[in-house]
Amino acid sequence: MRTEPARRGRFPLGLTLATAVGLAILVALGMWQLQRLTWKEALLARIARLETAAPVPAAQALDQATSPADLDMVRVRVDCPGLSRAAFVELFGLTDGTPGRRLISACPVASSRYGSLLVDRGFVPEDISARPGTEGQPGPVSVTGVLRVPDRPSLFTPKPDSAGRLWFNRDIPAMASTLGAPRPAPVMLMAETASNPEFTALTPAPLPAAISNRHLEYALTWFGLAAALLGVYGALLRKHYRP
Known about the structure:
By secondary structure, the chain is α/β, with parallel strands linked by helices. About 35% of the residues lie in helices and about 25% in strands.
């Protein structure tokens, strides 16, 4: 008696489409991590150069830049009359995993393009309610720090409180409006020097102490998952067409 070979099933179109979509997503995530790797390496190189960079006058840096990107990670110095007693808004932040507030004040600048520069004076831990005073006779304060372009808020970034005193992103135009600062520069000065040495709870924190760079590891993970998905797809095809 003659035995007929088993009929092969139809081509698994649904499985193939699902695999193609998943593969495209995984490869795209891997490529995105490689792009992030390039960006992070450039950022770390700029931070390394900052360690030995001499500060330049803030007004000079602001006037010579052709775009805000030219100002990012530039060390400057500026004289801020009355900064130690200046009004401030608070920005929620984390320093070494500790929640707290960063105090943001306005500093007038002698720039031909801008009238003011917002200064991040430093970080106060969440469990400290005291703040520097805003009354009394202030003296001149010379600030050295690093200019930073603010990050864009995400869809999940909270709005500032109704009084405009507590913020969750560096919205320079809105902060400057609250502080009455005219023509603000599009960057923020992250102070490296203290504006209030007598108030030790306020600590200048211009940059994270350590910036991780694991994007290559993440990219290899996504590409590895893509390879695993292809392997599973191939195994299913073999099983599908096996007599």
